[in-house]
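hey can u check if this looks right to u? its 505 residues, i copy pasted from the old doc so theres a chance i mangled smth
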Amino acid sequence: MRTNKLSVTLVNKFSNPLKNVVSTAKTCYSSKGIVEDESIQFPKDEKLLFDLLKAGHHTTFEHQYFQFAITNVSRYLVWSLLHSHPYYNSEQVSQRYTKVKEKFCYIPDLPNSFKKSFIDIIDKQYLFYNELTTLVYPYVEKYYYDIFPARKKSSEKFQKDIEKKAREIARYVLPIGTYTYLYHTVNILTLLRYFKHSLLLDSSDEEKDLVKQMLAEVVKIDNSFEKIINEIENSVIPLESNQILITKEYKKYFDSELSSYSSKLVDYSINAEKTLADAVRLFYGHVSTNLIDQEAIERILNPRLNRILSSEIVLTNNILLTKALTHIKYTFKKKLSHSADSQNQRHRTVQSSSYDITRMDLSEPDYVIPKLIEIIPQLRARFIEMMDYIWSEINKLISYSINPKFIVYLLPNSVAIRSFESGNLLNYHHKYAMRLCYNAQEEIWQNSIDEVKQIIKVHPNIGKFLLPPCTLRLLGKKLPICPEGKRFCGIKVWKLHINDYSRVL
């Protein structure tokens, strides 16, 4: 762990990315057809490149992609930068399904005396991870064979499945500074946004290092990028550091507002069902007397009538009828663990806002307990002991005035993340089709159930069609009903009403 360094490799790319920026721009004004990259000459044509950049005509910077292989980057940085916006694609190693390497974590550049304390805390968290994996295993095994009793006869065959579920729960004690590795694909504009963000005063040393290496890889294939980098660097006005503290009192207030929900519906389109029905009637050219609201909503949301909803390839953004779902909006205030929030943010078209977690009051433990641990008294007691230890050690470092930007790496995956989230019905429909599946991580699954139940209360004709993938496929006469194959959850969810959904794992 002590020698692992961030590594960035550009593995796939456009051959002439900046020339392509210019050729796409010139095509807009070409009477002779498509302008090809080969016709662009640098430095003669560079002026247009910078004119586009300065004028904000940035769509021309979005055609070119860079695929990076990134190793030894913290999950905190992936969450706070790489996955905190919609304009990327990533495939990252899963903590749910793979065992985390021992002592595989980001270590900030601290004085030696504090670095030892920092490393000692991390070492303890990895010991907790191994201990908790062992402690939860027999309970996971019991629940697993309650679901799949026939598999008990071939228990060796399914031992790895049980181990994966045990690790999924145990990972809640790991630090968010734990390293990960991933493929990460972005266009030029997103990369430049990363760079500009890294120049802000609040950006971490790890972020600056990551972006620096990404840019260095790009400069290798096109040294004209150096001029763009200099242009951006010279134009940045660094924002002042945010010193506002998110107090424990505020966090308690926020939690009290949630009531019994993990996600609370706080705003929505008041006339949603009529508006949606009107949009459907527009598509069909019907007046309300020929197509009443309920029937119109059925036409767009019932997979029996709209078979596109049961397709493996999501086409709802491409079909004129289903585009009507974009007019209906929902806003939730929610609380998830860092683990669950990291998955939740992958639904990039459903946007959230939160606070800077480096500004949280850390004087008291603040975390989410996994359901299996919550319902087993001895597991719960031991988990709380682990959390108390982590927070007590964190507070020792705080007393030495260690920068919160460093301390944040010690926070466990269980640390609570509070946020507001908003999106339209089209994107929530897709999210729920994925996260109501019993194979979804339990916490985000429960979060989605909370949301759908509340939508049903305010918009019953809409909410009743927010369904897991198996039920959508059943209604759409798509076989097999469960698309997960060997990963079938073991529950015939399509036969259940949402009020009957229940799981521990």
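The chain has a mean pLDDT of 94.
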